[in-house]
């Protein structure tokens, strides 16, 4: 082999090594995936470290799944004076109560859910109640209108 061919071969190999090094640098920049567990419901999700940090920053240091996050945001919209930490703690308590009753007996879970639905329905009716025109029975059994 002459020296010119040898130099060309070394140059080609150097170029290939440089391309591979750049590819390895790009691969090294890709975030590693971790498994995060929701502090409320216990659901596990695969997430990057950056995403985990963003969620924790938005939810008072707790990592919560997307479903719990939506429930917490709804709680905050209905209770504007509450802080994020209070909302997360409130939702966490609800999830814990649900998980405890669900694991004991599914029938209890259904009864608990129905009780909460009835309680919320009653609270909504109490809030919305305003003086309305009602029909009452008088002593003579003839209906009368009262304010």
How would you describe the overall organization of this protein?
This protein is α+β, with helices and mostly antiparallel strands and 147 residues long. The chain has five helices and four strands, in the order H-E-E-H-H-H-H-E-E. The strands form two sheets. It has a two-stranded antiparallel sheet with strand order 1-2. Helix 3 (66-78) packs across helix 4 (84-104) and helix 4 packs across helix 5 (106-128). The termini are far apart.
Produce a short descriptive summary.
The chain is an alpha+beta fold.
Write the layout of secondary structure elements.
Layout: H1 3-29, E1 33-37, E2 44-48, H2 49-58, H3 66-78, H4 84-104, H5 106-128, E3 134-137, E4 143-146
Antiparallel strand pairs: 1-2, 3-4
Helix pairs in contact: 3-4, 4-5
């Amino acid at each position: 082999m002459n020296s010119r061919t040898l130099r060309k071969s070394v140059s080609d190999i150097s170029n290939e090594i440089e391309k591979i090094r750049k590819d390895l640098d790009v691969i090294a920049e890709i975030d590693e995936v971790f498994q995060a567990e929701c502090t409320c419901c216990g659901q596990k999700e695969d997430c990057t470290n950056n995403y985990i940090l963003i969620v924790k920053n938005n939810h008072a240091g707790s990592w919560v799944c997307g479903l719990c996050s939506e429930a917490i945001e709804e709680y905050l919209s209905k209770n504007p004076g509450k802080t994020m930490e209070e909302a997360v703690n409130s939702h966490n308590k609800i999830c814990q109560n649900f998980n405890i009753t669900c694991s004991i007996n599914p029938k209890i879970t259904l009864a608990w859910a129905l009780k909460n639905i009835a309680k919320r329905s009653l609270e909504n009716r109490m809030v919305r109640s305003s003086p309305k025109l009602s029909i009452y029975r008088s002593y003579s059994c003839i209906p009368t209108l009262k304010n």
